[in-house]
Amino acid sequence: MTTVLDAKAKILVDVELPTPAPIAAPLRAIMGSLNVVLVGWYAVPEQTSPEQARDQFGGEAQAALNRVADTFRAAGAEVQTHVVFTANELDTIERISAEQDCDAVLIPNAVAQLERILVPMRGLHNAPRIARFVADLVQDGTTDVTLLHILEEEEERAIVQEGVLDEVSRLMAEEGIDAGLVRFRVEVADDPGRAIIDIARAYDVVVIGETEPSVRDLIFGSVPEQIAREAAVPVMVVRRRDDT
Asked: Which strand ranges, in their side-by-side order, compose the sheet holding 144-151?
């Protein structure tokens, strides 16, 4: 099913077919203000070609994905669906996120509400895209947004505050986020990744920018995936662009 999506931020959500794992209703509600690119991937055995699998299971797969799409639409999201028969989930996510120009990719987890968002920032790279995405995600004007920076060697707290966090806050204000809802947190840690994971446990959702060229490299086996697995919160990875 192809749907023309409007200008709201676009997030890729992948589900395994033919029996998708349920996505919690509160998480669907959080994404009701976004455009959802729903990718259903159907694992193809090595001895079966994707064409054969599509001929045999295409109708069943699309029907299952449509049922998931309806739950997102009920939450207010615009939804576009793609059914892919593949032996490689990661290649599928990377390819479609690029083809559909998605702003972010979801690593799902259970969540009860959207009251506190954690946004770890290493610098200003990708900051305008992160600010726009968070503004589209936060529509009710009541969600706290915490900008986090883990100090590295030679960094000074005051310089980071003025040069990074204050600037990101300004970008968010330009996107319509109430400055009174933006909070700052600067921590010192020997292991920045571990510090982010530990801090993330106290938040409802983590929005983190992509810092590597590959969505595959960033999401799987890296800090965002570790946050989702160990802190048990949803993670939304904002894709990078060369000009941001």
From this structure: 78-86, 35-43, 10-17, 104-107, 235-238, 205-209, 116-120, 144-151, 182-188
CB 189, CB 195: distance < 8 Å: yes
CA 155, CA 158: separation in Å to the nearest integer?
Answer: 9
List b or e across 58-67, with b for residues whose CB sees 16 or more CB atoms inside 10 angstroms.
eeebbebbbe
C-alpha–C-alpha distance, residues 192 and 84, integer Å: 36
11, 88, 107, 228, 229 from 237: Cα distances, Å:
9, 20, 8, 11, 14
Domains plus CATH for the chain?
10-102 (3.40.50.620), 116-238 (3.40.50.620)
CB 148 within 8 A of CB 196: yes
Classify residue 224 as exposed, middle or buried by CB count within 10 Å of its CB (0-12, 13-18, 19+).
buried
Strand, helix or coil at 16? strand
Beta strands 235-238 and 104-107 are antiparallel
pTM of the model: 0.89
Tens-place pLDDT, residues 10-27: 999 999 999 999 898 999
- Mean pLDDT over 62-81 rounds to 96
Neighbour count for residue 227 (Cβ, 10 Å): 28
